[in-house]
Amino acid sequence: MALAEFTQQFLQMAAVTLLFMARDMALAQSTSPGDTPTRVEVIYGEVPSESVAIAVGVIYVIAGLILFFPVFRYKHFWGLCLPIGAVSSGIGFFVKAVMVSSASRQNSQGLIIAQNVIIVCAPATFFAFNYILYGHLVVECVGDQFSLLRPTWVSRIFVSSDVLTFIIQAGGAALLTDQDKFQTGKNIFLVGLCLQAASYYLFTFMLALMHYKVKKSGMTNGKELWWKTVWLLYFSSFFIIVRTVYRIVEGESSRGSAIRSNEAYFYCLDFLPLILAISVYMPWWPGKYLTRDSLVQKEPKKTLELTPIEVA
After folding, report:
1. Is the torsion defined by CA of 204, 80, 55, 282 positive or negative?
2. What is the DSSP string of 228-292?
3. Which of 83, 115, 231, 251 has the fewest beta carbons closer than 10 A?
4. Which of 31-35, 81-85, 95-99 comes out lowest in average pLDDT?
């Protein structure tokens, strides 16, 4: 209960932060740019808000620290990618805050590349967590027969896809900072985004198919504890899909377009969906619901059969 109340306060703090973010972004946009635009202004169409970047970074780090708690409490080390990814995202926004803190740093290609790659690619760990969670759900509670792919293949295929699309997006994001290679970087980045999105859409379809098969089998009454994990995966996946759609639309847009140059779109359609996708696991850690009401048939222990000795 205490953790649920803390999570509620955390989300309230995030909501208040968003209001301040909107105010700061409005002020930033009302400020007239200098005669010579910095590299950041050329790439983003505006100078991002330093205070907003710091606030978002703090929210991500707090979320990550909270998520470390159930991982170590229940010894679910398979879930470490989730808090590590949240903290990494926070670091990306701190780098962004440093980048916009002065005109000289706004021209630093190293800072621009670093913050862009981290902010864009760190959320891949959120996708990976859901892939791994699905595998544990199938193995421990549902059974291989209800899954389109064997759990071991789920982790191998989808996590490998995550790593591959991570590398592609990172390469594209790095090229986006070079004006001469912007279009090439945009195309590479968009390919990575589309592959990542397609992979997650396939995963979501597989989750829904597993749900349908289990219900159709008649082996469950729908009240088993592990169903909470299924609904948590749906909730998280919905917001991840919202974020992927936004990223693809933004990736296809031209430099200077409203969706690229207005920071409000990014925070409302990237940061907000992602923080909701992982915050749901704070009060309801999914791993703790995988321990009871399993449909998986446990192998009976082998017993030594004794045969009577015939007496002559």
Report:
1. positive
2. HHHHHHHHHHHHHHHHHHHHHHHHHSPTT-HHHH-HHHHIIIIIHHHHHHHHTTTTS-GGGGSSS
3. 231
4. 31-35
